[in-house]
Prior knowledge:
Elements: H1 3-14, H2 27-42, E1 44-56, E2 62-67, E3 72-77, H3 79-82, E4 94-104, E5 109-119, H4 122-138, E6 156-161, H5 166-178, E7 182-187, H6 195-208, E8 220-225, H7 239-246, E9 252-256, H8 264-268, E10 271-272, H9 276-283, H10 287-322, H11 326-364, H12 368-388, H13 391-437, H14 439-444, E11 449-452, E12 455-456, H15 460-465, E13 469-472, E14 477-480, E15 486-487
Parallel strand pairs: 3-5, 6-7, 6-8, 8-9, 9-10
Antiparallel strand pairs: 1-2, 1-4, 2-3, 4-5, 11-12, 11-13, 13-14, 14-15
Helix pairs in contact: 1-2, 5-9, 6-7
Amino acid sequence: MSKEQARDIMDLIDDPQEGANAPEFSVSEISGAVKKTLEGAFGRVRVRGEVGRVVRARSGHLYYDIKDDRNVLSCTTWKGQAARLTVQPEEGMEVIVTGKLTAYGAQSRYNMNVEDIVVAGEGALLAMLEKRKAMLAAEGLFAPERKKPLPYLPEVIGVVTSPTGAVIRDILHRLRDRFPRKVLIWPVAVQGQNCAPEVSRAIEGFNALTPGGALPRPDVLIVARGGGSIEDLWGFNEEIVARAAAQSDIPLISAVGHETDTTLIDFVSDQRAPTPTAAAEFAVPVRMELLGWVEQQDARLTHALTSGLTRRGERLRDMSRALPSADQLTTHARQRFDFAEARLGPALGKAAQTKRTQLSERTGALRPSLLQRGIREQGARLTALEDRLKPEALTRDLQRKTQDLTTVTHRLKSIAQAAQLDRAQKLDALERLRETLGYKQTLERGYAVVRGNGAVVTTTEQAASSDVLEIEFADGRTTVGNTKTAKLTTAQKPKTKPQKDAPDQGSLF
């Protein structure tokens, strides 16, 4: 759309009567004219207000509102612009945003593309600081039990600060005066929009170093910066810096600003130093004082050893004077030795005589007559065993056992036959009882069984409701239908023949 067309549309809006016969415009043309007019009329503006809802899209774009007590202005910060913001918008923060007004025709809305955000006044910064402090304190990041003790004499000290400021010179000078140590410097921006991310990356980078590697891992860290306003020190109040300091495995000393300056990193660090110089004093002891203390302890140790040896020598001499002489101590022992030596000869002779007597008694039991008697007794025993093992003796023993087996077999056979006969008699009795109790015997006495539809009929009502009646007599069955004609279907019973006595089955044996 040209500027002339946009001007004509605006004239029509101002004077609708004049444009009653004017040509029609599309919705896109109207939206484009509104967008160009809005961007041309306002251009780059600064707006002050309170941050409302904040939405960070996955693409990295920021969508939020700036409002006062009556109106709301939608704001957008694209991903590339959001990375350059010095202050990230948070709900409830009072800010001044700078950008351009534009319109979004797809939804008939206008909004502001924000390029920069600053906090409106120190009071708002302090309020936001207190809000962050309360949030981190609720998570337990300020708890004293989380604080790690500082090493007494670190080998390597890591310093996170600007490499060109006076702070690093003060720290190095103080370390050189007190106790020279190896220092690793991680240069960072100490103010501005790059301060917070660079400081957090420096802390994480020092922790990522391998102990004992080519680049040694520091034993203690110092995060330092000189004094300044609250805006200058704001990078150390960012949440990412506080969390990086809290998660550091290396003990950390914060030395940001002067003694009266307090930042968020001071609460999560393991030790807060009022100045960078004081941080160096916390990190290492005074070398000369340490040497003097070592010399003093050496002197005390030497004096203690010397005096101890002297006292023990005096004690040993006093005790030696109270001890008896060597001759006095060994007199009784020599007497006992003499007595034992005098008794040793007779004791040996008596013991030898006793052993000779015992030997004679043992050899007496080995005389030839006693040996021959033992041999005769053992021979008699062998002869008796030989007689028992002769074929005639074995045959007699076998015949006796065979006779015993035959006797036992006859006895078992008779017992089995008697038991079998008893069981057969009991079975016949049970069969006679069954025949007596069964309904077949009742039929023999003149009774009959009536069945209808497969079931026994016991009443006239059941008989009337049955299509076919089946009557069972003693000699067979007949069927009666509804026509009162009887159809004889006699199933003749086989004539029972009297059973003869069961033949003898013989013995199982």
